Amino acid sequence: MKTFHIALIPGDGIGPEVVAQGVKVFKAIEKMDDSVSFTFEEFPWGCEYYLQHGKMMDEDGMEQLKQFDAIYLGAVGYPGVPDHISLRELLIKIRRGFDQYVNLRPVTLLHRKLTPLKNKTEKDIDMLVIRENSEGEYAGAGEWLFKGKPEEVVLQTGVFSRKGTERIIRYAYEEARRTNRTLTSISKGNALNYSMVFWDQVFEEVGREFPDVNTYSYLVDAASLYFVEQPERFEVVVTSNLFGDIVTDIGAAITGGMGLATGANINPEKTYPSMFEPVHGSAPDIAGKGIANPLAAIWSVSQMLDFFGLEEWGKRVFCTIKEIINHEEHLTPDLGGKASTEEVGDYFVNLLMQTKELDV
């Protein structure tokens, strides 16, 4: 039996509500497959913990997390704690500390009724955005000079190392080759005359090793336009930390909203645990109401299963997500249904059990 140890950080707002539904899926798989087992340990870290202890996680939190095979995160952020603290002292701390330099964000239309784009179908919107996840504009480098004075100056420095830029671009080329898809780079070399010119140069250099991969390169403003007008242009996309953050939110908007947006923070070498999360945020306006959409959190389960090498189960969970979209009465209000978060989770598990032999 293969046993996988998972650290749960439900976090803030709706995080605990949706993570609980993802755990249900893991436990259902255990019942259906006696060759795998999942263990869980929950950590109370997040904004409430910060308000009580003055820190987002334990001092030795990273050491505690090292022992796990993966981290399952619910959400980070809540009113009363500045966003730059909640983000940097938990989410980014884990991403950088565990060298989770690959961020995988699928932008996949599950059903044509979910997109606001006219005449677009599932074939038109099916891409994987690979976002650099460890440096770039989120490196936290800069300076705040003459604070509070008339001559106040703020410098925010984007960090693009040869190592960091080359490894994410190479990862994207390898993924495009493996899946026989095109690769598009998104940058802004006409305005950012150091960082993005360097990015474009590395994209071209690495590309010489992959002559079989068809490539495109767009400025980020043009790419944002094409995400909406012609999403079928994109199959595999690679971009920087900041641009990836922005265009994947556009991706969520054209595929059904943030309730279906998931992301994986990967350390490909598996030197450290990787982290999987729905990326809809803590949604404090609906926290505690029982109406949060858990499907993004369950999609994160699918990504984690793939990472564990349980690709068949990953596919089955994803296939069940596609199937449940057809059962509107069993969806949360954001997708037109009237079901609660818990009811969606329960129905999903029942559907997964019924369709376990489905050819995927």
From TrEMBL:
Q: Which UniProt keywords apply?
A: Manganese, Metal-binding, NAD, Oxidoreductase
Tell me if Manganese is a UniProt keyword of this record.
Answer: yes
Q: Which cofactor does it need?
A: Mn(2+); Mg(2+)
Question: InterPro entries recorded for this chain?
Answer: ICDH/IPMDH, IsoCit/isopropylmalate_DH_CS, IsoPropMal-DH-like_dom, TTC_DH
Q: Which residues form the Isopropylmalate dehydrogenase-like domain?
A: 5-348
Report the catalytic activity: (R)-malate + NAD(+) = pyruvate + CO2 + NADH
Which Gene3D superfamilies does the protein's record reference? Isopropylmalate Dehydrogenase
The answer to whether keyword Kinase applies is no
Q: What is its EC number?
A: 1.1.1.83
Provide the GO MF annotations for this entry. Answer: D-malate dehydrogenase (decarboxylating) (NAD+) activity; magnesium ion binding; NAD binding
What family is it from?
A: Belongs to the isocitrate and isopropylmalate dehydrogenases family.
NCBIfam families to which the protein is assigned, alphabetical? TTC
What is this protein's record name? D-malate dehydrogenase (decarboxylating)
